[in-house]
Amino acid sequence: MSIWTELTGTDHRLAYVDAGGIRTRALQAGPEDGEHVVFLHGTTGHLEAFVRNIPVHAAAGYRVHAVDMLGHGYTDKPDRPGEIPAYVEHLIAYLDAVGAERAHLVGESLGGWVASWAASEHPDRVASLQLLCMGGTKINPQVMERLKTATRAAALEDDIALTRDRLRLLWAEWDEDLGEELTRVRYEIYHQPEFQQNLDNLLALQEVDRRERNLLRPDRMARIKAPTLVVWANKNPFGDVPEGEAIAAAIPGARLEVFTECGHWPQHEKAELYNPLSLGFLGEAG
To answer: What pTM does this model have?
Structure first.
């Protein structure tokens, strides 16, 4: 199994989109007249995190976009700290560029943080939310230091085993075949000179003071009007199940699903459970 065999049979396009002056890498699939679904990855991640979800959602008639967020992957890397309002601005610029007046947002980790903030600031642009092991509601210095240390080692040392170790943080059970391919993809991304130069900006939200002013507080989450699905995992290394329960409780009408024997990538590690759950939710929200 590989990234490309996952996409076999799916008409897709790897595009570079001008999103408010930011050259943005996106994988697009599905009918152009379908409802837009935008997948947003986690900290120092990239669009390949959703290769097990893109074909299923496109086959169901949705216009699917998986994007490298601002400063990530092969998207442009402006020299400024990555804070949530800047990520949201870039997301809205991408929606404008592809003609998406409204979109269903699916965000994993940092992506969920960005999607939630966008829904609170731009309710007319967000049709629904799916928040997958979302970050941004707590300050946990131990977790933040672990993420910084593992990412810096993977990006700054010329040892692919360190990139593999960084990816292993996301799985409860390592996928040998696809995991190795994703390791190679991430190694190449991490070892771009411009990625290494931008690393402090990408890890900006792992600093306590900056994270504090970007936190998703209960009053902001209470402003979210979009139908919301919170997906958590019982072996998420960056947050226990009560954190997911608190997020679902803070967003009006939100629904919580907890996957067992699953780590930080429920959409990937438990795709056979996540994909039908997601499509059912989209059908209800649409």
So the answer is: 0.97
